[in-house]
Write a structure and sequence with these properties.
The structure holds 2 protein chains of 2 kinds. Chain A is built from 19 helices and 28 strands. Chain A is α/β, with parallel strands linked by helices. Chain B has a domain of about 55 residues: Helix Hairpins (Orthogonal Bundle). Chain B contains 4 helices and 2 strands. Classes of the chains: A alpha/beta, B mainly alpha.
Amino acid sequence: MLTCRAVWKKLAPLARASSTVCRQNVRRAGWNNARTPLCVPVAHMSTGPVGGGSDNLKYALLVGASFVGGLTYAVITLKGDQKRHVERMTEISSRKQKSASQIQTEPPATVMEPPLETKLEAAAAPDAEAAAPSETAEPPPVDEPLAEASAEEAAAPLTDAGVEEAADSKPSLPSHAPYLLIGGGTASFAAARSIRARDPDAKVLIVTDEPDLPYMRPPLSKELWFSDDPSVTETLRFKQWNGKERSIYFQPPSFYVDAEELSGAENGGVAVLTGRKVVHMDVRGNKVKLDDDMEISYDKCLIATGGVPRNLQVIERAGEEVMKRTTVFRKIDDFKSLDKVSRNAQSITIIGGGFLGSELACALGRRSTESGLEVIQMFPEKGNMGKVLPEYLSNWTTEKVKKEGVKVIREAVVKSVSYKDDKLEIKLKDGRVVRTDHIVAAVGLEPNVDLAKSAGLEVDSDFGGYRVNAELQARSNIWVAGDAACFYDIRLGRRRVEHHDHAVVSGRLAGENMTGANKPYWHQSMFWSDLGPDVGYEAIGIVDSSLPTVGVFAKATAKDTPKAATEESGTGIRSESETEDTASSAVAPAAPAPVVSHRDEYGKGVIFYLREKVVVGIILWNVFNRMPIARKIIKDGEEHVDLNEVAKLFNIHED
Amino acid sequence: MSYCKQEGKDRIIFVTKEDHETPSNAELIADDPDDPYEEQGLILPNGEINWNCPCLGGMASGPCGSQFKEAFSCFHYSQEEVKGSECIEQFRTMQECMQRYPDLYPQEEDKESPPQAESGGAPAAEGSALLSENDSPSVASPDSASAADG
């Protein structure tokens, strides 16, 4: 007892001094370890009077026990560090080829030195003062040198451990991207290209939750189905007009830079991080967080998250057997699985009468002639493309779709779907029942606005999607393009467009604005669709069947089909001649087909969509390569008294 | 003879070839060639090259983008009698770069000597000489083209 008090009194000033050092070190190094709590209570105790005898004993036991515990912890940590260091060194040496990681480890090494030294001091100091109140005189002197020795020998490994930790905490993937594009679809790729063209050596990072590099969607419901190649689901290649094949991927993998090498790339590049989802966006801090907790900061950010296909509620509630036999169609995997289904099933039903539903119906319908597959298409409207085409044209189109081998069920509202006798049974509201093997739901797209909440971005209540201005900007450093953007169109008003060309145009524009162009959406995007070899149209602007329309038609000849148009103008994807100057690559036109006049009245023509007497939308019906004129008329926004005169500008009787 | 019918709010006009032979009296507003909002071609109104022109495909944005830009700029601003004759070095550097990415820039015989391409002085022709043979940029072009649907 007395010896304890004596020892205590002797070491009290030392304890007090070391405790202040300890506290200072804690502030500097910011470590939180078992030693820290030891500092504070000891500092307290060093000034207070020591209590009675038994109290003193309890006190001594308590402190002794915590000292031993602390020391044990220290030794274990140091040993663990050493072990980790050895492992890390072997890993680093095997990685020594990658210069990037080497460069990274060096600076952290210098940064880590000072905190490490203070860490060592802190290690030594609490050990020393923890040793102070110990009962026996033995542990302190022994433990002190032991602690110091172990601290010393751990010094070298610790430095490296610190370096390793630094290298560990700095993954080889970039933590900062000057241009961050969220989403890896068409709009994102177009923006990447635009940025690279305008900002030399730009470093662009694309983050996508899909496993694939950026690809184009239209062939998934068109050209890929018409390919003769049995391995098309693997190659994903389709034939262009000139017989040359191309992949649906915008660029092969060699175009892109590895994400790890993006920061060090001398001339910059485009890197794609696949299979990662951005789950949180911090607009104030200019950074995002991924689903694997990685954080990436940015200078400029583009949100091009597209959307998720909608499904019918009755199907989602119908249970697993029904869901298993239902496809929503958007991605490469959906194409692959539907292709497989179409080869095995006897009957497929497509629910939805819009672009996607009709194109898939025609594609599958064409297959049905070879395989005996039954293809059914059902929708609530009166005819195919009922929300786009005026009624007379929608009806005409429906007849054409039927000719492609599709059983069309109009004015069909699905009431329930169930799985019965190994078939799906679709019950319609009017009592009709359809039995089928597989369902494809093509009932629209839900724009992906998952980041709106964390980012504090506005979502449009009328059209859905992020609300952006005419320059596609949501906030100073954030732009939105593609399907997810609800933007202000100077000519046509606020809208949201879900077409491929719009994704390209808006992506390009966003990329331009991200590099300082400050241009509004002005170049009107177009869209097009082919429903079989006889029906093809290009359209631009607002094409809504609820608007009054004026259609000017001529009698069609056999030359006025999409097939003939492609052969004539030498474009496989017809719209190539639209945006590209490569129409100069002239191909000797195929021998002109014999002129046959069709019975059908609506062979070819132009349809104007009017809003308060101004043309806001135009469909070129089986007439091609006239889009610039259509674009001009919409851009002018004039009130034309006689639309027949306007129609003359299109020369619909010519090819 | 043309005739007209009305189906609800939709008007349908059928016209013969003769009906449309007379020139249109519809008025269109004259375009301003310097309109900053408009999509520009390969050469901007101020004479510079528009690297973002869809006609260039991915040439200016790919891994050899900077080499391409240097070679093309040199050619574009060249005042020599044989345009671009002083740009051999830049074109060579560009070719070396492209050879490292054979699946992006397929190596074909005709594409070996870009500075010797005769087609006018226009860099556009230069570009298309390079591009028309090349699957890659025409790979690039349709994607920025309007292959669109719903």
